[in-house]
């Protein structure tokens, strides 16, 4: 984005209309997509949230009824709780995990390329297949996880078959995908100037001090971006849960996450209005979460600010 | 050697040595972690090559090969003290009940091939050998209709000592009529490559993976085409033209990344329903031609920004129009970015589950992800087949990943997500 600001220093009046028209021509696919697949649907979904519609009879305006129903819907609160539970554990553990892996992958070993590949690999296999692999790993009787836990003397839980352990199982599974974020952090780490470390070394800084005073602050914009996106994504967890529970969110709704509930309401029960209202609740929660993060983003260090 | 203890502090004081040791520890941690990361995939492949019985073993078998050994107790032992009472059991076997205080304390079943070492009403002590089984036998091989074999070990009198159902892909180590003894290896069960054939054309489903693969390839191909074409177009617009509201529009585009798909999902579904596109590939392909996704536009735009304007200007002087500048001059230069978004597009569409789930109803239209999910609902406990099917689905992704590794890693790095 830095590049654009320089270009705009020319006053708007001086822009040639010819150039402007061509600019919009090239933007047109996106503008149309924005209208038909993002902006339009968002407005439509907001209107639908105040309607009752089963796709057969015409939609009927019912005011705030959907939202009043949501407040009194125990399944909604359960799904919200499950989604929060997952996010609160999976996001911080995932971020710390991917930073640790990125720090390891930033070493100068000969095998570091191979290591990066291994750590990154699971994040491209995300989807139905990896959910199936983990169902097998979490098998209470013959799964590898309980076998290894048994080896160190712990009797493994029932995992996906247990109300208590189904969410931790999803969180553990999510850790397998830290490689995707690891690459982002690695790129961030490699962008940190060596001179900073050299200067700190002259001052006799320890490894820990260097990490705390150089690496972490320099990495903080990446962490900030990643934190926001990780929360947005983890609120949208769906495929793993759908595959592992055959679309049910069981046992006893313990893995019924918000998106699965929206999916069920919309495409199983055809309550399009109610599902839209739920989707808007999800949207507003994500928006609030993002705004809160921006509000409390003082910890983020921007190198550019200092240079001014 | 002598000085090593006295110089202990000196050993640690050396910064170079300290760093070397820390580096070594980190190296070990990194590899241990990598090992854990790779286990699920290795386990998938191992399981996919096993027989159903090999799956459910504790401890787990890492190599999908097992050996069949003639192995049974040749000496039957009384488990309690008391008086023996012999009665006849099924198929020529005899049951030895050990009576103590008028109750049956323990029983031993001696199969027909066994010979008794005690007589009726005789008193035995716990631990005493009451019957013996032959230590040798003769092999008998029976062919089943489905091509699998049954290996029987029979005694000289013709009684069956042991019977093995051998799956396909078993290498016999004995011949028909050969004499074998306890402890001898009879056969090796080799990796079950047949599982892949079975998973590819599952009997319980209407479709084979041919259908799913073809559908996925069609969707993925056109979706990648849409993403690459339209995001190049839009990125070029954002990177090279000055027009009112450009920067607010760019910000708007970036912020759409934060909109959960669920918000737009329902009205978009209704839109496609009115267009009559449900149960066609159109909902999965057409939207990609309209922008190609904020992340992709962003990535290509960042790439365009690194190319000097002088190139454009020179081309303009030579009489190129904007399309020619884009396709002749700039496109070759942003090729790495395009390959990157193509690869990301491949992985995304190949793995996508939610959209096909919503838009595709009939199984002849299913993608691999949907087909695989249906497969698991039908073959829930056939882990060997589920793992074979998963391997089939993952293999192309893994191949693309290894071929295009560089682009994944550079793609994220060049997108400069800091901005």
Structure explained in plain terms:
The complex is a heterodimer of chains A (308) and B (419). By secondary structure, chain A is an all-alpha fold. Chain A has helices at 2-7, 17-48, 65-71, 74-105, 112-124, 128-137, 144-151, 166-175, 179-190, 194-202, 207-234, 239-244, 258-268, 272-295, 303-307; strands at 51-52, 60-61. In chain A, a hairpin with a 7-residue loop joins strand 1 and strand 2 (60-61). The radius of gyration of chain A is 24 Å and the shape is globular. Mean pLDDT of chain A is 89; it is low at 1-13. The relative contact order of chain B is 0.10. Mean pLDDT of chain B is 87; it is low at 1-7. In chain B, helix 3 packs across helix 16 (383-414), helix 6 (209-240) runs antiparallel to helix 13 and helix 13 runs antiparallel to helix 16. Chain B is built from 16 helices and 14 strands.
Name the features:
heterodimer, A: about 300 residues, mainly alpha, MetI-like fold, 2 domains, B: about 425 residues, alpha+beta, OB fold (Dihydrolipoamide Acetyltransferase, E2P), 3 domains, four-stranded antiparallel sheet
Task: Give the structure's gist in a few sentences.
The complex is a heterodimer of chains A (308) and B (419). With 308 residues, chain A is mainly alpha-helical.
Quick one: overall form of chain A? Answer: globular
Secondary structure tally: strands of chain B: 14
Structural class of chain B: alpha+beta
Supply the CATH class of the largest domain in chain A: Mainly Alpha
Please, what is the CATH homologous superfamily of the largest domain in chain A?
Answer: MetI-like
The domain count of chain B comes to 3
| Residues in β-strands, percent of chain A | under 5%
* Helix proportion range of chain A: 55-70%
Which whole number gives the mean pLDDT of chain B? 87
